[in-house]
Specification:
Length: 191
């Protein structure tokens, strides 16, 4: 099939008509330059973990999101680095949730979900909580991040600090239909 070139410097719309002439699809283009995206090349992923993770007091730990619910463009590494490296430049919505149990001794604590871009924190999310052995908590992060489409990547970490210097266990073990903790992302707008 040959390439088809349409030119309208002012922008506008283009109608595609079905062979039966019963329905059509209208695509509207802006008057600016850019890449038109279709669902086949818009990277998106959703991952969860099937292993338990312990978080030592005052130590940042990477969460091994080792199972994929979906990965539309094969940009998520679920076996080695647990990172998303999108191959389409643009702005991505990144979402993460970490579900965990309290420390063995009740204490005031900080718990953070940390989204890193290229090993540098892109955004911290967390709260001060009163942890005890029977409580369950959840921290989330949801930054919008620009990725260059070649070398930029993102990973998810957890950090906690508490007065009792306790190690806490992250209740991260889940399945594709019951994700206690998750790491997700999708392209919002191409660059």
């Amino acid at each position: 099939m040959a390439n088809l070139k349409l030119k309208n410097p002012a922008g506008g719309s283009l109608n595609f008509v079905n062979a039966d002439d019963a329905s059509d699809l209208t695509v509207t283009f802006p008057a600016t330059t850019g890449t038109a995206m279709v669902s086949g090349n818009m990277p998106a992923f959703s991952a969860y973990t099937t292993t338990s993770v312990s978080a030592t007091n005052n130590v940042t730990v990477k969460i091994p999101f080792n199972a994929e619910q979906y990965d539309t463009n094969s940009n998520y590494d679920a076996t080695t680095n647990y990172r998303f490296t999108p191959t389409v430049a643009g702005y991505y919505q990144i979402n993460a949730s970490i579900y965990f149990g309290g420390a063995g001794t009740a204490s005031n604590a900080w718990a953070l979900c940390v989204i890193r871009q290229n090993a540098t924190p892109a955004q911290y999310y967390g709260t001060q909580i009163f942890m005890n052995s029977s409580s369950l908590f959840n921290v989330i992060a949801n930054p919008l991040i620009y990725f260059n489409g070649t070398t930029d990547y993102t990973e998810c970490y957890f950090y906690q600090t508490n007065n009792a210097s306790s190690t806490i266990t992250l209740n991260t073990v889940g399945s594709a239909t019951n994700m206690y903790s998750y790491f997700q992302g999708y392209l919002v707008r191409a660059a």
